[in-house]
Amino acid sequence: MKYFLVAGEASGDLHASNLMKSLKKIDREADFRFFGGDLMQSVGGKLLKHYKDMAYMGLIPVLLHLKTIFINLDLCKREIEAYSPDRVILVDYPGFNLKIAKFVKEKLQIPVCYYISPKIWAWKENRIHNIRKYVDRMLCILPFEPDFYRNHNYEVEYVGNPTVDAIAGSAFSTETFDEFTGRNRLADKPVIALLAGSRKQEIKDNLPFMLEAAAAYGNYQAVIAGAPGIDPGFYRPFMAKYPAGIVFDSTYRLLQQSTAALVTSGTATLETALFRVPQAVCYKMPLKHLAGFIWRHFFKVRYISLVNLIAGKTVVKELFNEHFSTKNIREELNNLLNNEQYISKLQSGYWEIINLLGKPGASDRAAGMVFFAGVNDKKERAINPTENKTTCAKRKPASHQSGA
């Protein structure tokens, strides 16, 4: 069959590439065209637009690049229509992908599968109406999402979390600390990992504070996880005052060898938890007072990190908005490095999350559901009776109380 995929950022490129690999296992004739990235291209098929030319996040960047966004939308629609795929697979990136879903269903009547749900449980809940209309199958990767959608009379599937797959399949799981530091020309000191985000603005906002806080612990070395697509030279000015190591394309290897980590919000918080590295979530928000107002009145969750959202409670400290400061980061880092009771409690929370997420196999389960999209459920279960379902822990994201 022919598959058209749309992934608009680095994490989508990763998860879409693994889904493509799984589709090739069950469909030897699988042919791909996509908006995505290098990882998807390495699997095969034709890359039509790189996510680097699409990843505009936040109100101001979106407004500044509206013309480019509309050009990309138009190109994507034309390419889908010309390719006439059997399936359209949309990966997160809702501002763009829900418009594509509407076009595909209204104009082309091609089955639309959505892999990795938009975070409508956090905000923009009204997007559920378009999802109901234009998405044939929603494949979720967080264990509380099916209950959220069920409350909106929309059935979805929890396939497991692909981050579990990615870590379980890590090619460097046996690498030693000495091998890692030697290969990357790092010092022979324990490592504090700094995961400051994947976008330039995030890095500008967060990395200087992380570096300053980590510098207080001279018996450790700070090592930055360089983001995909960011030129190494971009990091040099930040490292001039507080020297640090940096590695690229090695985040999992870095986490595997780290004693503690400072992490911005996002998938990286979950990755750090799955490696069982004690972490603090550090996220500076511009226009602090306005951001606080928006957070209190428009967001419907109490946490910003996937770790705490999945657990439904505070497992890791979240230092954002008014709590974000070098002093607070430094104090929390001290707990992560030296407070054994604190670390033990954090690790217990990690194990709860690991059990909730379930076993590897998310990409394979998702591929089966994509391949059989449009086949009636009875026939699908007969063909693939055990691979399409994963037990879902019935846990909802902690709701946010306005004014709290």
Descriptors:
Rossmann fold; 6-stranded parallel beta sheet
Radius of gyration equals 21 Å
Largest sheet: 7 strands, parallel
Q: Return the CATH class of the largest domain.
A: Alpha Beta
CA-CA gap between termini: 51 Å
CATH architecture assignment name of the largest domain: 3-Layer(aba) Sandwich
Global mean pLDDT: 87
CATH topology of the largest domain: Rossmann fold
Please estimate the helix content.
Answer: 40-55%
Strand order of the largest sheet: 3-2-1-4-5-6-7
Shape: globular
Strand percentage, roughly? 15-25%
Which consecutive residue ranges, at least 5 long each, have pLDDT under 50? 376-396, 398-404
The CATH superfamily of the largest domain is Glycogen Phosphorylase B
What count of helical segments does DSSP give?
A: 19
Helix/strand/pairing category:
alpha/beta
Extended strand count: 13
Question: How many domains comprise the coordinates?
Answer: 2
Question: Please, could you describe this protein's structure?
Answer:
This protein has 404 residues and is α/β, with parallel strands linked by helices. It folds into two domains: 2-166 and 360-383, Glycogen Phosphorylase B (Rossmann fold); 171-357, Rossmann fold (3-Layer(aba) Sandwich), CATH 3.40.50.2000. It has helices at residues 10-26, 38-43, 59-64, 66-83, 94-108, 128-134, 145-150, 162-168, 177-183, 200-214, 236-239, 251-256, 267-274, 288-298, 306-311, 326-338, 340-357, 362-371, 377-383, and strands at residues 2-7, 31-36, 46-50, 87-91, 112-115, 137-140, 157-158, 191-195, 221-226, 245-248, 258-263, 279-283, 317-320. Strand 1 (2-7), helix 1 (10-26) and strand 2 form a beta-alpha-beta unit. Helix 1 packs across helix 18 (362-371) and helix 10 (200-214) crosses helix 16 (326-338).
